[in-house]
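User: I've been going back and forth on whether these two constructs are worth ordering. Before I decide, could you fold them both?

Assistant: Sure. I'll take them in the order you sent them. The first construct and its structure tokens:
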Amino acid sequence: MSIEPQVSEERTARMALGMLIEPGCRELGVLVRSVGAVEALARVVGGFGITEQLAGAVRARLRAAGVQGSANVGEQVAEQMGERAEQLGARIVTAADAEWPVSFDDLVRASREGNMLRRDTDPPMCVWLRGPLELAETLERSVSVVGARAITGYGGYVASEFAFGLAERGWTIVSGGALGVDVTAHRGALIAGGKTVAVMACGIERAYPAANAAVLEQIGAEGLVVTEWAPNTLPHKTRFLTRNRVIAAASRGTVMVEAGSRSGARNTLGYARLLQRSAMVVPGPINSAMSVGCHIELRQPGTVLVTRPEEIIEEVGSVGELATPIQGAGRPEDALDPLQARILDAVHARRATSAEQIAAVAGVSGRDARRNLPLLEELGFVVSSVDGYRLRSHPRAELGEEAGR
């Protein structure tokens, strides 16, 4: 789908700024919020009211784009972007469009952090999309699933099962299109016939990594491929870290399946916490190097341990979407009342003892023992003889209402 022929000045300016300046630029974000996108574009192109570092970066991008002078730069750049999008079967969305997810704007909160590790954290100026779904609507009910590239069989199983289960229940799966947990989660959602969104760190036309080309192509045909970077942009290492903030902002919460101590997935989970999204982690074996990062994150306040899709939905879903508690297999003695259970505990396994002896061991009255032991025998828990009562080797009782009397 091509962009609208008549675009607003705001939209045009945001498109141009998105191409001329590397995504997430905090200086640009502050400027746009202060004077608006149109005036911000005039300043960065004219080189006034901004740092020399930013001005130099813009000049380099203008030269690369073949744009001359400062007149109508926005229109020139937007026209180039529109033509390229049409060639690629993509579209461009900005905050001036109805399709823009307001959740992206929460990244303003992250931009206020002074930590250098939180560099490039401002909201996107624009995003390139490929796919039939509407972006804001698709992300309204979504969960990000992230983790290591070099996953174990355990991690692969969890990522696939969780994504399938969530997608089957109408949740969109957001991930980064990478090897390992990312692509496994995307596949799980696709197999379930659900929605999935791949947020990339390169140009919209690039299938990176190449090993995932078929899956990314399917996502582009059935779901959404999203990126902030213009076509022909290579996936540099720092761009993955910048991209992670969008994965965290896009959804209601982030689930980390498997991650080493230095995994980039921890970066994404950190953004989720910073944005006050749900930060969820799947535990793994304590001796697995691929779960070290998970266990470190589980020690962080507010992190939620999850072991099944229902628990994720309970965390990010609407009021009343609660996971059914996990219960162990029922045992016949579970239906006994406290007094009956106490008496049963006092019955010897191999040697018959009298009701009075059992009462003394249990700490109950002889009367209570004499009243309940015949019922325990009737229910199949004990057997009687002339010497008293002992436990039945294999209790056969299936307790009904009588056990509570």
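The second construct, handled the same way:
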Amino acid sequence: MSEKAIESYGKGFLVLLLPISFLIIFLVATWRIWLGVILLVLGFNIWQLYKWQKWCQQANPIFHQLVRENQGRITPMDLAIKGNFPGEIAKRYLDTKAGEFGASTVNSEDGSKVYYFITASTLGSILDSSEPPKEFPTQPVAQYALPFLAPPPPQSHLQEPETESLPQPTQEEAKKPLEKQLMFGSLIQSELAKRLNVYSSTVYKRRDDPDFSEWSRTKDPDGVAWKYSRKTKEFFPVEEGKS
């Protein structure tokens, strides 16, 4: 790099460095003043916000009265006249309330803004003034019945609940002698139910009854009495003379 280039580069750096140095020195010397200005502006804004909130609290009763009297329809002029407020302040107040309550705004023909605040009483009056729905003449239901829906057939008597038929033993099972059925000297619950021509659940319910032997004797085709063994969960024939 030539000496002229280095010299020009150094001059440019000094030109940029001098203003920055002066600015830093100025801020260091006057930082107390800038801090006071910032605090003063912040305090002024807080004070303005406090004053606005206090003013809104005083204007709220007038606003509520106008909402009731005008059924929710308010213009900035109405509020300004009612409360003797400046127009700009009235408009700002209504803009705040419109955002708070979700009111709708409409521009009138003269360019002024109209605010609509919907209340329960306003909504009720709107519904009451609306046109009632037209009533159609009542017609028998049969005239509007669909063609594929036929009326149910008349019932001459009450239908008895359908009951499942009892399991009937086959002819071969009926001809089997007791000795062949007692291949292992006993019968299980389903086998005994077929022999007695009852449901298996019936045998299950009555197996612990004291009169189960006598009951099973009346159901058995050979008049054999049966007893239940809790140990083996099986049914054994009762020999005559033994209980």
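Notes on the second construct follow. Residues 171-237 form one domain. The mean pLDDT is 76.
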